Amino acid sequence: MCTRSGDGGIAPVPDMTGTVTFVRGEASRVSLYEASIRVRHECPYREISERHPDLTIREWPLSDCQVLEITAEATPTDELLADIEEIGSVLHESEDDDGYHVVTQSCLCSLEESIVDRFEAHNCLYQSPTIYHRGWEHYTVIAFDEADVRALLEDLRADREIELLAKASISETQIPHSMLSPANQLFETITDRQLAALQLALENGYYTQPRQTSLRELADRTTVARSTFEEHLRKAENKLLTNAGQFLRLVTAPSTADPLGARGQQEPETTAD
Length: 273
Hints:
This protein is of the alpha+beta class and 273 residues long. It folds into 3 domains: 11-38 and 112-177, 2-Layer Sandwich (Alpha-Beta Plaits); 40-106; 181-252. The chain is built from 8 helices and 11 strands. The protein is globular and about 60 Å long. The two termini are 45 Å apart.
């Protein structure tokens, strides 16, 4: 996270609603700046949105690919369907009165030398998703210093067409945790089999109260033994909670409440031998 702590530094201070307000030092607020820009440069997603003006593409970058949500008001043409097929693997596709909707996983745009790296180089926080519409890429960034926004714009203008749509001070504004903690961080170190076990348990009501299934029933849906399935599931649970711990501590750190009375239960002192 692009925060600094200590005297005069920048630190995130969460409240009990699950949002973060940035403060400098112990008392004074930080002035934040939000900038919305649109960009034209060589990118297959932008080019698809230019060929299909009623199309909107929303992109969420992951560590090694992108997830795209594509929506169109009208029934997709053969040309559009062909373009979507070229993008990558279709994860979901539907069409109803509201229009056409598809979710894909793609790796067409290289994440090396990404524009997001340019944002970070100028101390700006990128807010996903990127939106592609009518041949433009739309980005929103948060900066701690207005000079960082100006430097970013100057850098981007050197090699692409860019327009600043809006820039505003958002002092006293609170920033959601989702901007600071990418979801893929929660699943770091979890293997594919562990993720599959976790998803199977979740989708079959294992975590509801009362439980809708058992470990035996879940294992029977797979080709692995019950003990092996349980090992995958427990490791996934452990890793997920461990990864989430840093964000849990952010949420609970400012609270002095002790709803479970845990602090009142002092551990007994042990006498050294």
